[in-house]
Amino acid sequence: MLPFRTSLLRLQAEGLVDIIPRSGVFVRSDIPLEVLGSPDPYFKIHSYELQRSDTYVQALQQIGREVLVRFLERSKILPAGEEIAKQLNISPETKVFRRYRVQIVDRTPFRIMEEFYLASLLKELCERDQELYPLQRWNSNYVPFLKWLKEEKNFYPIRVYERLKCRMPTDKEASILKIARNQPVVEMHRHVWGKFMKDDKEILFEYSRLICNASLHEFQYTYDIEKNNRP
Length: 231
Description:
Elements: H1 2-13, E1 18-20, E2 25-27, E3 34-36, H2 56-62, E4 67-71, E5 76-79, H3 81-88, E6 95-105, E7 108-118, H4 119-132, E8 135-136, H5 145-153, E9 155-167, H6 171-177, E10 185-196, E11 203-213, E12 217-219
Parallel strand pairs: 3-12
Antiparallel strand pairs: 1-2, 4-6, 4-8, 5-6, 6-7, 7-11, 9-10, 10-11
């Protein structure tokens, strides 16, 4: 244990880690906190990356961050099954497109993303993922997801529901995120509805689970007070 402790103390002296006494938790202190949401209290925003015409990844790249996505498994099209069928309000036999990836910012794992989409709408992206596997890098030819939906499918997202909870990670999640088992994560469940152009029917087309390293994220949002509680 002595060599490990000596190395850890050296990293702390160099400013590369912060150690929380008696907890066994240590995090890199040179990694900026990522704020999801708007710092402007007068601007309602529930999901920073889904409110924009580009993506969260592009926003990070524009400020000089290096962003990669590593596939934890190959993307595939498969029957939804009971659990995902309930989330997407479809039958268990309906085909969905599943992605299972980890987002890495400046060589540090930020969040695990397990995403389920209606395969009838997004099967082409599953085919593209096979070419990107095992590591996705962005270049000038990349078309942002929301732009691709609009241009290729005449479809656009309109509404998002997100549920957040803080908890301790599983062994697998801690290993992927490279954190201690007693370092918390934020689990986000996201549902996204959209519409085809010139069609008023809303379609629930995405359900995603995001496991975020809690020490590297901050979530901001605003909401209205009920009218019956106002003067």
